[in-house]
Amino acid sequence: MSVYKEARDKGCEYLLRQLHEDGSFGDGTVGDYYKVPAAFQVCGETNAANRLCNWIRKNGMGPGGDFGPRTDFTSDYFYAYFNIWVILGAQRLGQFDIAQRGMDFLMDFYDEDSGGFYSSRTERGPATKQDLWVVSGCGQAALYASRLDVARGVGRWMQRMMDEQPNYPEVMYTVMTPGGGLVTEVDPADPIRYVLVNAEEGDQYFFHPGIAGGFLARLYQSTGETQWLELAKRYMLFAETATDNLLRLLRAGKVAWAASVLYTLTSEQKYRDLAVKIGNNIVDQQSPDGSWSSVGTEGPSNDATAEMVVWLDEVYQALG
Questions:
Q1: Mean per-residue pLDDT, 39-46
Q2: Are 312 and 283 in contact (CB under 8 A)?
Q3: Which residues lie below 8 Å from residue 237, measured CB to CB, with a gap of 6+?
Q4: Element (H, E) at 130
Q5: CA dist list (Å): 82 to 27, 36, 189, 231, 244
Q6: What is the spatial distance between Cα 40 and Cα 9, in angstroms, rounded to a whole number?
Q7: Whole-angstrom Cα distance, residue 54 to residue 67?
Q8: Distance between CA atoms of 141 and 171, rounded to whole angstroms?
Q9: What digits encode the pLDDT tens for the residues 106-155?
Q10: How many CB atoms lie within 10 A of CB 165?
Q11: Element of type H or E holding 181
């Protein structure tokens, strides 16, 4: 049996133990359940996924298509990111009412002029920030919900971000505004949000090149337009030269996903090697009970576990 499939299924078994009789999951907040429908789906646990989706339909989705209940953390600038995972999981499962209503709500964040999605829940203006990982995730949700014009808009936004990088791939800036373009003045109170560098130690938002490259590769698959495949490769240049420190972070899971898709599309060995290295690191960090911990914390995390289950499945699909 593949080590990736074995770890994936062990993680799924942990998640199944958090599913309650009424279909609710964990503590019932969006931060606990949002990635779980997709995790159950990739493991073939469709009955469990359906029970959870029924609970979301009845208890977790508002009339406008938003998902909850929310905590303070899930109401931050990455508000929309929590919604995209529910949309992806529901669409994969054929729960189209949840996915389409969820995407309708997400469109309130869309900036048609720039092609990006606003990070703020309420602000809509030329100085409102748009973060690469949030925009990429929303683009992926648009692909799943058959909003191809929106997904292409995200692709154009990502092309502009890449074109404005001043020192890439040594440094990667990850925030833009519609009026000012790439933000290169980093907020000292939250530098990790704005810039990514190849560091030998410490935490980095290393998911940026992965979620960007993965989305763009899927956009290429959806359209056949080679510009998106080339842009995906460009975003992944940062990951190709990453330090072992960054490759060991669980945040690298999205990079493993992108590398797996790019290996499938191109057969280039470098993408296979990257997917294997990160996939093995993820497996090595799994706890005996099947769970993973979030970066910088101890103890099981439903959020981290569900995501690692999904990324290990992507590696397994590509590599076996």
A1: 98
A2: yes
A3: 168, 169, 209
A4: strand 130-131
A5: 15, 11, 23, 25, 28
A6: 9
A7: 13
A8: 27
A9: 999 999 999 999 999 999 999 999 999 999 999 999 999 999 999 999 99
A10: 17
A11: strand 181-182
Q: pLDDT category, 303, cuts 50, 70, 90?
A: very high
Side chain identity at residue 60, one-letter code:
G
The residue type found at 56 is I
Other Cβ atoms less than 10 A from the Cβ of 163: the count is 10
Measured CA to CA, the distance from residue 45 to residue 70 in angstroms comes to: 26
State how far the Cα of 284 lies from the Cα of 77, in Å rounded to an integer: 32
| DSSP state letters, 34-68 | TTHHHHHHHTT-HHHHHHHHHHIIIIIB-TTS-B-
Please name the residue that has the structure tokens 């992926």.
Answer: 140
Instruction: Report the C-alpha gap between 286 and 290 in whole angstroms.
Output: 6
Tokens of 34: 């949002």
- Return the minimum-mean-pLDDT range out of 7-16, 201-210, 268-277: 201-210
**Across-strand partners of 131?**
175
What predicted TM-score, i.e. pTM, was given to this entire model? Answer: 0.96
Query: 36 and 30 in contact (C-beta within 8 Å)?
Result: no
Sequence letter at residue 299: G
Which tokens in the block code for residue 226? Answer: 């080679």
Please give the Cα distance from 182 to 22 (Å, whole number). Answer: 46
